[in-house]
């Protein structure tokens, strides 16, 4: 009917080709420009990432190697076990430090005077006697023999060997004296200094001595905390998402809840820490610094993320599947549990893992509930005092010793490694279980 | 129910349907001329005109073939339903009847030639007395049904159908008269038989026109009124 | 001919007291039932389902107005009409699929045999086992072909033991004309089949629970002509055992598969009649305009 109107409205034909050609150059230029903007932005971002990684890895890499000094130790029976009973108690309480001192004196007979001797003994880490005791307790037959034992060097020796102390500086400005440098050089020349993989970093808890400080305590703390977080937030999050998406009536109340969940996801994490402090510690009287409380707090923080991710995963299940199930006479619960949930699960897991990765990197709320304490012991349960990796990093970053700087970076590398692992797991899960319909 | 006069969404379909209908009406017009000319050739003893009528039947036959092709194309491409289907089927059937009417006209023309192309004396006027009024009735019926088809008018179609009874009665009385003449004077038998063929042709034209009228009623009302009494036909056709 | 009892004018939105039921109408009254709008005979000789004065509202929108229609046993009835005319809405009333839509409100009376399907005593799960559904887009579960068909019997607890289930699954696939194509690949996912096979799998899935009525919502709209032809052939075979209601946009399809056709327009049931009558001589102008393509 209005066909004639249409044809009347058609503008007179002009030379379209010429018109288009005229503007073509400008269009192409705009496109090139836009592409260039994008490339610049991405390169800039990448450059910063590379810089950050280079910095962290460059600083942290040496921390995975630790200097040891080979000492010929004579396990003198008179020092260790004068009575000759081989009683384990006697063996445990013997003065192993004296053996080390004797060995050092043997290596550097020219050193005299208490001050110099103390400096000489200072080359060896204070944990070395424990090492000797360990050897003897394991094999008492060693008593009376002389063995070449690799003992842990002190942090200053380690730092110097790694080249992190500028020898050109004035003596008073460095943590290590000319004399000590001379001894270390002699030990190096004798081939008594060896570098080995730093297992202490992974097996020890925190320590005031850098060479003895490790992240195991923080790792276990993180593990227990995240376990609590996962055990709480995943089932609750999935259940909430399923209820809100599939069962809840759509009314003002559910709208309100939805808005609040979205807002919760944006609440600064430290607020959750304050909440945890007020509710879990002050009101319920749960222990401070415990992974249990940390896990509870992080659950609160992670829940909104999991619920939102879960709901997104549920909405992405095509309605045709729901209709098919309902049309077959499945009840609503059967529809959800037989069809919708299995299809949404990869998405939910992915969301949860990413939420967990965020929780792993979180430190602020944990500061509020006392997980920032200096804790030497590796936690053995959910109520032991503990700290977590990011907090450990924060603590170490505060310490002045040069050796802690590299340990801080090493801990960051471990943390980043776990993050990448978790995100990778999320991707693998998604790819693996993603189904086509 | 009523035939929709709204346009199809596919405009080309409208154009094709209109084209088909125009072809049929054009064919109807040609057929009408043929009958008039055939009867005229008889009246005027015009043998040239009669030959012309015979020759022009080929045009009508050609039109029939063309219309049939178009119909098949329409059915194959548009899958018509409802009133479109009824229209196409009615037109298709009407074409067959029109072609037969054309054949009857040709038959009359041949009879004209047979009657006047011989050395013997022409038939007496009284033998031909019934031809003119019957020809008038037949052409009126054909004209009426073509009009009804052009206007899709049920009432006109009913009138045409009603007219067939008149024509049949005329034919019966003419037949009786011819028999009387033949019994009175056996020499007239030759001409009388020719005239008999002519009035039989005219009677057949009426039947075909009635058929077309019935198709129009089917087209409009969707009721098949073939082989029913005139009363039923009228009731079905004029019922709302 | 079954004498059916049908109550009319019974409000259904849960407010009905099931004890207070109006006296059933006589069958003569039912035949005489004439709606102010619908042209044609809405009753069936042997009704499987009977709908009276069904209204559907989506929030404020009156999506279906006063629809009354019988669906005869073992007949294929087609619903046609332009988009948004309410045909799918009406179809979904027949197995209460509209229940899932929160804003949807339904009044009127729909009866399956002797049961008012909107009665409180009727569980929707039981209803859907009796009134199966096949959807527009083939929607097999992302499970194996076997599991797809076995799902319904399983959730309804219709079988005892693996052997019985196997038999039922094979029989259903057989009836859906799919067995030859999938016999060797029962463990492959249902989604690996072609579109037409998927739709036949959905039909097999629906008939596995042995429903009385099968609703089909444009079952061939996503399929090519060959697959469509196979489904149409299947519908014709299924008619022996089931009552089939099919919504379709293809008028040729409605003409081919159905015995009765109902034309919907903007929420009204305009005309219902024998399919051959609807397609050769529709009585309502709207029907005529729609089927001949004169719309709008």
TrEMBL record, chain A:
<dbReference type="Pfam" id="PF11812">
    <property type="entry name" value="DUF3333"/>
</dbReference>
<keyword id="KW-0813">Transport</keyword>
<keyword id="KW-0812">Transmembrane</keyword>
<feature type="transmembrane region" description="Helical">
    <location>
        <begin position="292"/>
        <end position="314"/>
    </location>
</feature>
<keyword id="KW-1133">Transmembrane helix</keyword>
<feature type="transmembrane region" description="Helical">
    <location>
        <begin position="223"/>
        <end position="244"/>
    </location>
</feature>
<dbReference type="InterPro" id="IPR000515">
    <property type="entry name" value="MetI-like"/>
</dbReference>
<feature type="transmembrane region" description="Helical">
    <location>
        <begin position="36"/>
        <end position="57"/>
    </location>
</feature>
<protein>
    <recommendedName>
        <fullName>Phosphate transport system permease protein PstA</fullName>
    </recommendedName>
</protein>
<keyword id="KW-1003">Cell membrane</keyword>
<comment type="similarity">
    <text>Belongs to the binding-protein-dependent transport system permease family. CysTW subfamily.</text>
</comment>
<dbReference type="InterPro" id="IPR024573">
    <property type="entry name" value="DUF3333"/>
</dbReference>
<feature type="transmembrane region" description="Helical">
    <location>
        <begin position="336"/>
        <end position="357"/>
    </location>
</feature>
<keyword id="KW-0472">Membrane</keyword>
<dbReference type="InterPro" id="IPR005672">
    <property type="entry name" value="Phosphate_PstA"/>
</dbReference>
TrEMBL record, chain B:
<feature type="domain" description="PhoU">
    <location>
        <begin position="24"/>
        <end position="111"/>
    </location>
</feature>
<keyword id="KW-0963">Cytoplasm</keyword>
<dbReference type="Pfam" id="PF01895">
    <property type="entry name" value="PhoU"/>
</dbReference>
<dbReference type="InterPro" id="IPR028366">
    <property type="entry name" value="PhoU"/>
</dbReference>
<keyword id="KW-0592">Phosphate transport</keyword>
<comment type="subunit">
    <text>Homodimer.</text>
</comment>
<dbReference type="InterPro" id="IPR026022">
    <property type="entry name" value="PhoU_dom"/>
</dbReference>
<comment type="similarity">
    <text>Belongs to the PhoU family.</text>
</comment>
<comment type="function">
    <text>Plays a role in the regulation of phosphate uptake.</text>
</comment>
<feature type="domain" description="PhoU">
    <location>
        <begin position="133"/>
        <end position="216"/>
    </location>
</feature>
<protein>
    <recommendedName>
        <fullName>Phosphate-specific transport system accessory protein PhoU</fullName>
    </recommendedName>
</protein>
<dbReference type="InterPro" id="IPR038078">
    <property type="entry name" value="PhoU-like_sf"/>
</dbReference>
<keyword id="KW-0813">Transport</keyword>
Automatic annotation (TrEMBL), chain C:
<feature type="domain" description="ABC transporter">
    <location>
        <begin position="49"/>
        <end position="291"/>
    </location>
</feature>
<dbReference type="InterPro" id="IPR003439">
    <property type="entry name" value="ABC_transporter-like_ATP-bd"/>
</dbReference>
<dbReference type="InterPro" id="IPR003593">
    <property type="entry name" value="AAA+_ATPase"/>
</dbReference>
<keyword id="KW-0592">Phosphate transport</keyword>
<dbReference type="Pfam" id="PF00005">
    <property type="entry name" value="ABC_tran"/>
</dbReference>
<dbReference type="GO" id="GO:0005524">
    <property type="term" value="F:ATP binding"/>
</dbReference>
<keyword id="KW-0813">Transport</keyword>
<keyword id="KW-0067">ATP-binding</keyword>
<dbReference type="InterPro" id="IPR027417">
    <property type="entry name" value="P-loop_NTPase"/>
</dbReference>
<dbReference type="InterPro" id="IPR005670">
    <property type="entry name" value="PstB-like"/>
</dbReference>
<keyword id="KW-0547">Nucleotide-binding</keyword>
<protein>
    <submittedName>
        <fullName>Phosphate ABC transporter ATP-binding protein</fullName>
    </submittedName>
</protein>
<dbReference type="InterPro" id="IPR017871">
    <property type="entry name" value="ABC_transporter-like_CS"/>
</dbReference>
């Amino acid at each position: 009917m209005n066909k004639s109107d249409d044809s009347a409205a058609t503008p007179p034909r002009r030379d379209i080709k010429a018109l288009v050609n005229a503007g073509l150059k400008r269009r192409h230029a705009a496109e090139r420009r836009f592409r260039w903007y994008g490339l610049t932005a991405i390169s800039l971002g990448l450059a910063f990432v590379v810089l950050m990684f280079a910095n962290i890895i460059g600083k942290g890499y040496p921390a995975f190697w630790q200097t040891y000094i080979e000492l010929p130790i004579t396990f003198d029976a008179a020092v260790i076990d004068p009575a000759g009973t081989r009683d384990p108690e006697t063996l445990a309480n013997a003065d192993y430090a004296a053996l080390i001192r004797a060995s050092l004196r043997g290596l550097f007979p020219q050193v005299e005077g208490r001050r110099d001797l103390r400096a000489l003994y200072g080359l060896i880490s204070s944990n070395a006697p424990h090492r000797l005791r360990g050897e003897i307790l394991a094999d008492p037959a060693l008593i009376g023999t002389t063995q070449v034992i690799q003992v842990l060097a002190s942090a200053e020796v380690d730092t110097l060997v790694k080249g992190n102390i500028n020898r050109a500086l004035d003596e008073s400005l460095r943590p290590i004296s000319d004399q000590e440098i001379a001894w270390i050089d002699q030990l190096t020349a004798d081939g008594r200094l060896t570098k080995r993989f730093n297992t202490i970093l992974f097996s020890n808890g925190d320590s005031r001595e850098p060479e003895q400080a490790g992240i195991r305590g923080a790792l276990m703390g993180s593990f227990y905390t995240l376990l609590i977080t996962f055990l709480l937030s995943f089932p609750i999050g999935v259940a909430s998402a399923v209820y809100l998406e599939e069962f809840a009536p759509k009314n003002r109340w559910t709208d309100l809840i939805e808005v609040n969940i979205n807002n919760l996801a944006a609440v600064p994490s430290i607020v959750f820490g304050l909440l945890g402090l007020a509710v879990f510690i002050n009101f319920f009287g749960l222990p401070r610094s415990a992974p249990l409380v940390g896990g509870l707090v992080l659950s609160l923080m992670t829940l909104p993320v999991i619920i939102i991710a879960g709901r997104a995963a549920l909405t992405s299940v095509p309605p045709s599947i729901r209709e098919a199930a309902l049309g077959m006479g499945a009840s609503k619960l059967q529809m959800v549990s037989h069809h919708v949930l299995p299809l949404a699960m990869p998405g939910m897991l992915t969301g949860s893992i990413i939420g967990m990765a965020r929780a792993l990197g979180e430190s602020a709320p944990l500061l509020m509930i006392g997980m920032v304490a200096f804790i030497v012991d590796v936690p053995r349960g959910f109520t032991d005092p503990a700290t977590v990796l990011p907090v450990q990093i924060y603590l170490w970053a505060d310490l002045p010793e040069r050796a802690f700087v590299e340990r801080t970076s090493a801990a960051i590398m471990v943390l980043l490694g776990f993050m990448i692992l978790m995100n990778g797991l999320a991707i693998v899960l998604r790819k693996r279980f993603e189904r086509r319909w | 129910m009523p035939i929709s006069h709204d346009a199809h969404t596919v405009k080309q379909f409208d154009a094709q349907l209109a084209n088909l209908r125009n072809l049929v009406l054009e064919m109807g017009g040609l057929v009408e001329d043929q009958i008039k000319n055939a009867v005229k050739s008889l009246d005027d003893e015009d043998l040239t005109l009669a030959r012309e009528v015979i020759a022009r039947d080929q045009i009508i036959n050609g039109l029939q073939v063309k219309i049939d092709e178009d119909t098949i194309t329409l059915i194959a491409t548009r899958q018509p339903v409802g009133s479109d289907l009824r229209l196409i089927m009615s037109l298709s059937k009407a074409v067959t009847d029109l072609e037969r009417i054309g054949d009857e006209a040709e038959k009359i023309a041949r009879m004209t030639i047979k009657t006047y192309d011989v050395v013997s004396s022409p038939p007496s006027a009284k033998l031909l007395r019934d031809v003119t009024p019957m020809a008038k009735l037949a052409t009126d019926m054909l004209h009426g049904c073509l009009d009804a088809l052009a206007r899709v008018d049920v009432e006109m179609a009913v009138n045409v159908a009603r007219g067939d009874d008149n024509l049949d009665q005329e034919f019966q009385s003419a037949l009786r008269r011819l028999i009387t003449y033949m019994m009175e004077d056996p020499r007239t038998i030759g001409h009388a038989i020719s005239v008999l063929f002519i009035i039989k042709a005219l009677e057949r034209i009426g039947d075909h026109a009635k058929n077309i009228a019935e198709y129009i009623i089917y087209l409009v009302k969707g009721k098949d009124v073939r082989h029913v009494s005139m009363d039923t036909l009228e009731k079905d056709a004029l019922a709302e | 001919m079954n004498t059916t009892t049908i109550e009319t004018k019974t409000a259904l939105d849960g407010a009905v007291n099931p004890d207070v039921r109006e006296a059933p109408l006589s069958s003569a009254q039912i035949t005489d039932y004439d709606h102010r709008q619908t042209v044609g005979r809405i009753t069936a000789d042997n009704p499987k389902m009977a709908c009276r004065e069904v209204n559907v509202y989506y929030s404020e929108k009156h999506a279906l107005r006063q629809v009354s229609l019988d669906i005869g046993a073992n007949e294929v009835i087609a619903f046609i009409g332009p988009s948004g005319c309410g045909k799918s809405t009406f179809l979904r009333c027949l197995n209460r699929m509209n229940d899932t839509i929160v804003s949807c409100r339904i009044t009127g009376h729909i009866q399956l045999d002797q049961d008012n399907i909107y009665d409180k005593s009727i569980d929707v799960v039981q209803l859907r086992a009796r009134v199966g559904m096949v959807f527009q887009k083939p929607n097999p579960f992302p499970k194996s072909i076997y599991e797809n068909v076995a799902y319904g019997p399983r959730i309804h607890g219709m079988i005892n033991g693996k052997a019985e289930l196997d038999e039922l699954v094979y029989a259903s696939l057989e009836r859906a004309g799919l067995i030859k194509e999938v016999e060797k690949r029962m463990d492959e996912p249902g989604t690996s089949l072609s579109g037409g096979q998927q739709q036949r799998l959905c039909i097999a899935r629906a008939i596995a629970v042995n429903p009385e009525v099968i609703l089909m919502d444009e079952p061939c709209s996503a399929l090519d002509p060959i697959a469509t032809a196979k489904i149409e052939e299947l519908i014709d075979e299924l008619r022996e055992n089931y009552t089939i209601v099919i919504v379709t946009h293809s008028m040729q399809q409605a003409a081919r598969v159905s015995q009765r056709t109902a034309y919907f327009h903007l929420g009204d049931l305009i005309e219902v009649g024998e399919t051959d009558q609807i397609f050769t001589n529709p009585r309502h102008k709207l029907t005529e305009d729609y089927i001949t393509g004169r719309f709008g």
